[in-house]
Design brief:
Length: about 170
């Protein structure tokens, strides 16, 4: 069994009970994803699996065998930071930084949901493409908590990045 983490094939953990979060942090030494509540309530552990956001504390590593896992470490490339990472810096989207990796991975997954036209609870018209408003971003990011007060900067960073990427 193997999985692909940040573009590299790695062996699955020997213990099938190992969470994806523990596998990433303890066996692969990718410590960007944080263990917040370890109950799926805070979003600090959010990573992307085949481009979709998942809570790695609630996912067993063996559940993602053969799939592509992207962590915060896998977003930047040789040319520099991912645009959302740069936007978090520009818009003061972090203070302590503990939730930042999960926030960024979740926002990237959210952008893919928007691109697919998936509605949210606050979408006015379920059959139309979602409009990128602060309210829409706040609703879609509600599973990722920031406890130190950088919420406005987080929303600003996401809005600025997605607005630049979305067709007019």
């Amino acid at each position: 069994m193997s999985l692909i983490v940040n573009g590299s094939e790695v062996s699955a953990p020997a213990d099938p009970r190992t969470s994806l979060l523990d596998y990433l942090r303890e066996e692969l030494h990718l410590t960007g994803s944080k263990k917040g509540c370890n109950q799926g309530a805070c979003g600090a552990c959010t990573v992307l699996v085949d481009g979709e956001r998942v809570l790695s504390c609630l996912t067993l590593a063996v559940q993602v065998q053969g799939r592509a896992v992207t962590t915060i470490e896998g977003l930047a490339d040789a040319d520099g930071l991912h645009p959302l990472q740069a936007a978090f810096i520009e818009h003061d989207g972090f203070q302590c930084g503990y939730c930042t990796p999960g926030q960024i991975c979740s926002a990237i997954g959210m952008a893919a949901e928007l691109a697919r036209g998936l509605p949210s609870h606050v979408s006015a018209d379920l059959s139309a493409d979602a409009t990128l408003t602060r309210e829409e971003i706040q609703e879609r990011m509600s599973g990722n908590l920031c406890r130190c007060g950088a919420h406005n900067g987080i929303v600003d960073a996401i809005h600025a990045t997605l607005a630049a990427e979305m067709p007019a």
